């Protein structure tokens, strides 16, 4: 009976992780949609009100960097930004703590 409970917990954990990943992806697409809509409006405002002085590229550029890094993290393009790396690093730090080799103290 203990084995059945373990399988259920593993399935629950898998479900939780999958749900969390879907939420992260939805968050990224929400950020991307906002980025596109707001910057389209800013470009229109800039070109309509002062076409001789272009400033729309500043929010486009900085917010764009944020959107790119958000996407890289959500889709785990760089392992350093992903959950697997975080878990490995947490385990590594916990092992160092157990061994008494923690240099933070």
Automatic annotation (TrEMBL):
The lineage of its organism: Bacteria, Pseudomonadati, Bacteroidota, Flavobacteriia, Flavobacteriales. The chain crosses the membrane at residues 28-48, 60-81. It comes from Flavobacterium araucananum. One of its GO terms (molecular function) is kinase activity. Keywords: Kinase, Membrane, Transferase, Transmembrane, Transmembrane helix. This is Histidine kinase. It comes from the Bacteria. Residues 18-95 form the 2TM domain.
């Amino acid at each position: 009976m203990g084995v059945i409970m373990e399988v259920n917990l593993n399935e629950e954990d898998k479900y939780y992780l999958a749900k969390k990943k879907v939420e992260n992806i939805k968050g990224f697409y929400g950020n991307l949609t906002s980025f596109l809509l707001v910057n389209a409006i800013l470009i229109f405002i800039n070109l309509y009100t002062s076409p001789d002085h272009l400033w729309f590229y500043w929010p486009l550029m900085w917010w764009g960097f944020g959107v790119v890094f958000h996407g890289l993290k959500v889709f785990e393009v760089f392992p350093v930004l992903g959950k697997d790396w975080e878990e490995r690093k947490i385990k590594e730090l916990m092992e160092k703590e157990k061994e008494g080799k923690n240099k933070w103290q």
